[in-house]
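thought: fold this chain, then report.
action: predict
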Amino acid sequence: MSSIPFRFDQVGSLLRPARLKKAREDFKQGAITEEALTKVEDEEIIKVIQKQKEIGLQAVTDGEFRRRWWHLDFIAGLNGITVYDFETTAFGITTEAQGTFVSGPLSFDSEHPFLEHFKFTKKQAGEAIAKQTIPGPNMIYLDSFILSKQYHEAPVYSDKKEFVQDLIATYQAAIQAFYDAGCRYLQLDDTSWGGLFDERFRELIGKNGYDPDELIQEFGDITEAVLAKKPADLAVTFHFCKGNFQSHWLYNGSYDKIAKRLLSIKAFNGFFLEFDDERSGSFEPLENIQDQRIVLGLITTKTPELEDKEAIKARIQEAIQFVPLEQLCLSPQCGFSSTHEGNKVTEEDQWAKLRLVIETAKEVWTD
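observation:
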C-alpha cells in the first residue's frame, strides 16, 4: 500500500446537503422514522461518492454523512462509554456540545454500526478505494478519562494501567473488524495531541494530576501498541488538526513539542498535518519524519476563498527543505464538516478546493 496516502487526498468529512440536514432534524422531532432517515443518508452518500469519483479522487469517503460529530458517534458505539450534553465556549462561540466519559470496562462492540456503514461505502466506491475514518485512541484517553470530571467522580478502573490495556485491546479489535469488513485504508483522527502543546490544556492536564510531557511519550506508546497487530496490507494514516468546529479552532501552538514522538510511529503510512495558516508554524518539525509520507494540509476548509495555486506550490517548495518531495502529498487541512453543521463554506467552495488539490498535485508530482 505504498501509494497510500495518495499524492492528492482528502481528510474525510464533507458538507451535509440541505436534504440530509432536514431529514436529521425531522427525525429528531419525531416527524420521520429511523428507516426514512437511513434512506436519505443512503441516497445522499451514493451521490457524494459519485461526485468524489467524478472529480478524480482515488480515495472516497461517505462524507461522514451518518455522523453528528467526527469522533463521538464512533466512541459512543463502544462498550463502557456514556455520552452527555453540555454547553461549550471552547471554540470561541457558545454552542451545544456533547462529551463522553468512561462509565464501564472499555471494549469494542462487534455489532458497532460503523462496520455496516463502511460496507455500504465500499460497495458504492466500486473501483475507488473506500477510506474509513475513526477517532484515535488518545481522544478517549484525554477527554473521557484524564480530563473527565464524571470519570474522576466515579472511577471504573483501579489504576490507569488497567484502563490503557483495555483501550489498546479495544482499538486492536476495531482495526481488525474494519479489515474483516474489507477496509484497506483506515485513518485515525486524533486532535488530542494538540492538548499536549497548547498552554491552556497543558495547565488543565497538570491540574488533573498528569504531566503533559510524559503524556507525549505515552500517547505515542498507546498508538504504537494499537497498531502492533494491524494486517500488513492495511494502510493506516494519522490526521491531526487544531480543532475545526463551524470554522472555529481549539488549540494554539506548533508541532515542535510533539513532532519527534509522533513522527517516529513507523506503523503509519502517512500523516495528514495542518499547515493552512501562520498558527501552524514552520515546516521544520517535519525533519523528524522517517520514510512515511507527509500530507501537507495547505488548503483550508475553514474559509471560502480559493487559494492561489502558485502560492501552494511555493509552500511545497518550502517544505522540501525538510522532507524530500517524493514523501510529500497534498490535501485540505481538515474535513469540511467535522460536525453536522459544517464549516462556513458552500458545497461549491468545497468541490473547488478539492479540485484545486488534485490539479496542483498533478502539476507537482509525476506519479
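thought: worth noting. The two ends are 14 Å apart (CA to CA).
final: C-alpha cells above.
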